Amino acid sequence: MRILSGIQPTGPSYHVGNYLGAIKQWVEMQETADCLFCIVDLHAITVPQDPKTLAKSTLEKTAELLALGIDPDRCTLFAQSYVKEHTELSWIFSTITPVGELERMTQYKDKAKKQRENANAGLLTYPILMAADILLYKPDVVPVGEDQKQHLELTRAIARKFNARFGKTFAEPAALIPKTGGRIMSLQDPKKKMSKSDPADTQISLFDSPEAIRKKIKIAVTDTGKDIKYSQTKKPGISNLLLLYSLFSGTTISEAETYFKGKGYAVLKKELADVLIETLEPFRVKKHSLISRDVYLREVLLRGAKKARSLAEQTMEEVRAKVGLLS
Ligand code: ATP
Ligand code: LTN
Q1: Using a 6 Å CB cutoff, which residues line ligand 1?
Q2: What is the DSSP letter of 193?
Q3: 230 near 253, Cβ under 8 Å?
Q4: For residue 18, which of 58, 52, 65 has the smallest C-alpha distance?
Q5: Residue 27 in contact with residue 69, Cβ under 8 Å?
Q6: For the segment 206-218, what is each residue's pLDDT rounded down to a tens digit?
Q7: What pLDDT digit, counting tens, does each position of 190-235 carry?
Q8: Do the beta carbons of residue 316 and residue 91 sit within 8 Å?
Q9: Cα(169)–Cα(167) distance, rounded to whole angstroms?
């Protein structure tokens, strides 16, 4: 079984949503499957990035992934921009993807609204590059958070379209979205998903200090009333905190509800902060020991790219022949 997934090197650090929605699954799957994990730096530049810090940020995110348990000896970890076949296949896919389908993508609509003065073409064609990231490696499964479901459906549609035009080339990969934890909400606006690119107090970074974790949980938005009950519609704030508690403490939601019955919001917040601090501490220590090892981190990404490239080249050879490009 082959797995592929991607993550952007954007924002200050990966957050608990990235972990529960994606990275935790990656760490588990590398034990049994042939896994490729791609740091998608070309996707990141659809939002303006400082050229002086982007490369550094890519290395820092590599250190974070290693600290979280991604093991370069058990998987292929690489930077997207090191494997040029991604952009080549993306161009070919762009010639079979209707613009109307891209305009329907929620992530495009959200991001284009956020940066009206820089609603660049890359934001629109972003899912085509993602389809190329995926289909180049012909994976069976793509583990992602719920926000990527629509992009995965488009990837499947692109595979179908390519096959119909040029002959059977790609199987349709399945999205693997966790049953719980696939959509962790912002601590300040629990109707919106937690996002790296939003302000610090909306997210718990996986590498936050204990003090920062306590403070952010303390000021997290809650709901009226005082019962600790899971209801995304009636109690979105408390439900998000309860869900985080349940996932980090290894209890079910209903066990957590029973445990907090008759206790106030402040108790839930304190216990959530405790369990987060305890679980995240080893990640912080590990990141600290890796962060200054630039040469090693770059070497990990280059080694991964070499492995990825050999697979990508095979697919491109097949694609080029099918499309009728000169060999
Ligand atoms: P940005 O705000 O910079 O767009 P992001 O926080 O959405 O970043 P990505 O790098 O785009 O993070 O996503 C990496 C992975 O984490 C994807 O699989 C995505 O679905 C998942 N993910 C992102 N946010 C959440 C969330 N709030 N809950 C669960 N999974 C998430
Ligand atoms: N679009 C995704 C990141 C991403 C990805 C991929 C995920 C780019 N390429 C390939 C899975 C497979 C995002 O914004 N989270």
Answers
A1: 7-8, 10-11, 17-18, 20-22, 144-145, 147-148, 182-184, 193-197
A2: B
A3: yes
A4: 65
A5: yes
A6: 999 999 999 999 9
A7: 999 999 989 999 999 999 999 999 999 999 999 999 999 999 999 9
A8: no
A9: 6
